[in-house]
Specification:
Chloro_Bact_Ser_Proteases, six-stranded antiparallel beta barrel, 10 helices, eight-stranded antiparallel β-sheet, Pdz3 Domain, alpha+beta, Thrombin, subunit H, protease, signal
Length: 456
């Protein structure tokens, strides 16, 4: 749209120069808007507007140990990604959790060639955000935008280090916002068609003014390379996570005490919102008067179109935070306020294992554990899943339990918790013990992969 407008002005200059003075005034008014035109070279370009951004985007180099070589193996180069300087005085760099989660050490290479050792201050697997620090030596922080103001059709640029090559800038548009259901974490993705490839993870998605609007995180692709569908964590969400990492070294999530689900389009009316499936007794939701069947359509001023939108708001809210909800009930929308409560730790215990001797007292030992009102066991060869799919099988679900209220079913195979992969019951036990607040299970059910948020 902007380029077409510029071309119209450029192609009409000679005619306008011969026109009446009133037309010259019109041109002056129009050209008062910044135009990405390089007068010196005679080309349309965003180079001048984006030149400084390159100094803020860095390459992240990780060292790690191959788990197949044992704990005494020497660290070696394990991968690379991108990162962005967000605070020059503190030497703070934001990147993706998955870039650094398995690293034994991290180094950062700046655009000017300087290399720094980096410290991982904290990570959040659920939003895939991590905070690093380096020595604050002549750094340039990127300017940050308000990602809540993004609209489909806005210009967007992805900048990072794809495939480990030199810094690369690609261009596209914002294809959509508020995307969820892509993985198994807390998701509120910006979707763009700017080319993003392996190695871009952790890099900046920026607007046409060079301001950071998101962290390039994932792509949708059958072959692993760019297919025109890429996803970025909105910078507003990332900054909320970073604020907690700065203060606590981790993210402390609260709960409101509801299980939510999409609205069935076949039920008639609008399919926008998050439908409450269950309300936990004594929870903030119950005390505020929320009921099963209510539809949450707004949270803290944000329109809620899907359960993922609501999870994105509540999922970054610290305990004690006040949340204002718009709730549709019986054809009318009412306002309800509640305060986010402290999280409940998931209690994990060893369960009797059929056909296997109990373990040594560690949850998951012997291949069976109990948690959330369900029992889990190691997957075995007789289970109806492909050999390469590993996880913990749901052996039973207790009536009235949190597991049942959330939709977990006997025969499901849990393969991940809050973005962390699990290969067996012991790993599931460890993952559940580390949960503080909401838990989202990534589950194989039949031939489908689904996400199940566990009632908190």
């Amino acid at each position: 749209m902007t380029v077409r407008h510029i071309l119209t002005l450029a192609s009409g200059v000679s005619a306008l120069a011969l026109s009446a003075p009133i037309l010259s005034t019109t041109v002056a008014a129009q050209t008062a808007v910044p135009i990405p035109y390089d007068q010196e070279r005679g080309v349309y370009s965003y180079a001048k507007d984006l030149a400084e951004v390159s100094r803020s985007v860095v390459k992240v180099l990780t060292m790690g140990r191959d788990p197949n070589e044992g704990p005494d193996a020497q660290p070696k180069a394990s991968g690379n990604g991108s990162g962005v300087i967000i605070d020059a005085a503190r030497g703070e760099i934001i990147t993706n959790n998955h870039v650094v989660e398995n690293a034994t050490s991290v180094r950062v290479e700046l655009a000017d060639g300087r290399i720094f050792d980096a410290t991982v201050v904290g990570r959040d697997p659920q939003t895939d955000v991590a905070l690093l620090t380096i020595a604050p030596d002549n750094l340039r922080a990127i300017e940050l935008a308000d990602s809540s103001l993004l609209r489909s059709g806005d210009l967007a640029f992805a900048i990072g280090y794809p495939f480990g090559i030199d810094q690369t800038l690609t261009m596209g548009i914002i294809s959509g916002t508020g995307r969820s259901g892509i993985g198994d974490g807390i998701e509120d993705f910006i979707q763009t068609d700017a080319a993003v490839n392996p190695g871009n993870s952790g890099g900046a998605l920026i607007d046409s003014r060079g301001r950071m609007i998101g962290i390039n995180t994932a792509i949708y692709s059958r072959g692993g390379d760019n297919a025109g569908i890429a996803f970025a964590v909105p910078i507003n969400m990332a900054l909320a996570v970073i604020a907690q990492i700065r203060e606590y070294g981790e993210v402390r999530r609260g709960r409101i005490g509801v299980s939510i689900a999409p609205i069935d389009a076949r039920s008639g009316g609008s399919n926008r919102g998050a439908r409450i499936e269950a309300v936990e007794s004594g929870s903030p939701a119950a005390e505020a008067g929320l009921q099963q069947g209510d539809v949450i359509v707004e949270a803290n001023g944000r329109q809620i179109n899907t359960p993922g939108n609501l999870t994105a708001v509540i999922g970054v809210a610290a305990p004690g935070t006040q949340v204002s909800l718009g709730v549709r009930r019986g054809g009318q929308t009412r306002r309800i306020s509640l305060r986010v409560a402290e999280p409940r730790r998931v209690e994990v215990a060893e369960a009797p294992s059929q056909g296997t001797q109990p373990g040594n007292g560690r949850p998951g030992a012997g291949g069976s554990l109990a948690a959330l009102g369900a029992t889990f066991r190691d997957r075995n060869a007789g289970d109806p899943f492909p050999e390469q799919v590993t996880g913990a099988l749901v052996a039973s679900v207790q009536a009235g339990s949190r597991a049942e209220a959330s939709g977990l079913a006997e025969g499901d195979l849990v393969i991940g918790v809050n973005g962390q992969r699990v290969a067996n019951a012991a790993e599931l036990a460890n993952a559940l013990r580390s949960v503080a607040g909401a838990a989202t299970l990534f589950v194989a059910r039949g031939n489908n992969m689904i996400q199940i948020p566990i009632s908190q």
